[in-house]
Amino acid sequence: MFDRLPTPYGLVRGGVAPDHQKIKSVTKVYDRLASQPGFRFLGNVEVGRDLSREELRRCYDAVIYAVGAPSDRALGVPGEDLAGSHPATEFVAWYNGHPDFAGCSFDLSAESVVVIGMGNVAVDVVRVLARTQEELAKTDIAPYALEALAKSRVKDIWMIGRRGPVQAAFTNPEVKELGEMPGADAVVRPDEIELDPGSAAAAAATDDHTIERNLATLRAMAAQAPAGKPKRVHIRFLLSPTAIGGKDRVETVTLVRNRLVAGATGDMKAEPTGETETLPAGLVFRSVGYKGTGVPGLPLDAKRGVIPNDAGRILDAPGQPAPGEYVAGWIKRGPSGVIGTNKPDSVETVESLLADRAAGTLPSPAAGRDAIEALLKSRKIRVVSWDDWKKLDEIEKARGAALGRPRLKFCDLGSMIAALDGTA
Ligand code: NAP
């Protein structure tokens, strides 16, 4: 298993919110797999930079790319690139101590923050902004983020959905949590959760309990008078941003009210009514989905942000599978689903791989896998092994324990390698 970072677990480490420690316990399953004979971790090695697709092909019978979707989707509205307007993915990676984003900065002196999107990432961002210092101090949030959030002057956090509550992409435990924050009131406008006939019919017809539970949660929030907590989380529906305004940096977000109309496939689509409203915003997070950028040398469907594939088999061209090369996860199906969704997704890929092996269509690599090590050595790459990672893991946990936190993360590559090589 290769990882461009010295640390494993991808989004479990760099994406799952720090106040959701329980979700991170899935790493125990990965650790069990990693303890199997024959498993090797080669961390701090970036495929496409330190090793090419061809080199991997030459050394392994099969390669599975599970590189995720590291970039973000744009909104396409004027002012999107003003200072203070950020992709939510950047903020998430920053507060989780991802080395590529540790140097980012966010102006938390703003009192009003607008988050565009109604998915679980938007909920994570809103929740981290709304948490009290006491709550965050018990997590493994990056130390610089804890310090910056301690000075935060954020009071009003607006989460903006372009469609209604039936179409919201968040799951129920996530939105429910917004109503149970010690330091923030959840505010929902009753008129914005009234259902249009199409959405009411869709809600009545579905056996998706998430919709039913979300509606119950939002109705309870709308019925509740704010308790006067220091911060407010405003969950707003049927609004699309049309412009992000400001002279040198963001100051406002202009929104247009939408109505829902049935699309050709029966899906409810947002249609602008022309009625607008402007919110003050010192900071804007665009949380409208991640986007895959692929791997140099491999095909990419740039529009969808996925590597074209058939049941996990990479397609060099339509109907032309690349022997022994596969994909799994977000780079295979797009950036959707929770951690558990990746299990059946991976099973499908591995079944394709095993079927190809049984059919004898896997290529025979010219060089063995040890050739990879020689190659990396010749390129002077400091490969981080599983034992190295375990050492880092222990150090992070010990540093955290001293502060009553689950771990204190290393947030830059230099300090990780220095801790391993004894120069820290
Ligand atoms: P997501 O679930 O796809 O949500 C994207 C949101 O952005 C939707 O509400 C979508 O609205 C909205 N949107 C898209 N384009 C827009 C536009 N142009 N203007 C306004 N709104 C727009 O994506 P995500 O939140 O990035 O999450 C990615 C995946 O990770 C999801 O499957 C999520 O459940 C998962 N995740 C799970 C957890 C957890 O389990 N706690 C935490 C984080 C992430 P429309 O529906 O109208 O398109």
What does this structure look like?
The chain is built from 15 helices and 17 strands. It has helices at 11-14, 27-34, 53-59, 88-95, 120-130, 133-136, 143-150, 172-178, 197-205, 209-223, 330-333, 342-359, 370-378, 386-401, 413-421, and strands at 2-3, 42-43, 63-65, 71-72, 85-87, 112-116, 156-160, 184-188, 231-236, 239-245, 252-262, 268-280, 283-286, 290-291, 309-310, 313-317, 320-327. The longest helix has 18 residues, at 342-359. The protein is globular, with a radius of gyration of 23 Å. Bound molecules: NADP nicotinamide-adenine-dinucleotide phosphate. NADP nicotinamide-adenine-dinucleotide phosphate (NAP) is lined by residues 75, 116-122, 124, 161-163, 167, 169, 171, 174, 240, 287-290, 335-338.
Quick summary:
With 424 residues, the protein is α/β, with parallel strands linked by helices.
Overall, the morphology is globular
Proportion of β residues? 15-25%
Question: Mind telling me the C-alpha Rg?
Answer: 23 Å
- Sketch the major β-sheet: 6 strands, parallel
Structural class: alpha/beta
Query: Numbering strands along the chain, what is their spatial order in the largest sheet?
Result: 5-13-6-7-9-8
Instruction: State the total count of DSSP E strands.
Output: 17
Mean pLDDT across all amino acids:
96
The residue ranges in which pLDDT falls below 50 over 5 or more consecutive positions are none
Total domain units: 2
Q: Indicate the CATH architecture of the largest domain.
A: 3-Layer(bba) Sandwich
The distinct bound ligands, ions and cofactors come out as: NADP nicotinamide-adenine-dinucleotide phosphate
Query: And the CATH topology of the largest domain?
Result: FAD/NAD(P)-binding domain
The helix tally amounts to: 15
CATH superfamily placement of the largest domain = FAD/NAD(P)-binding domain
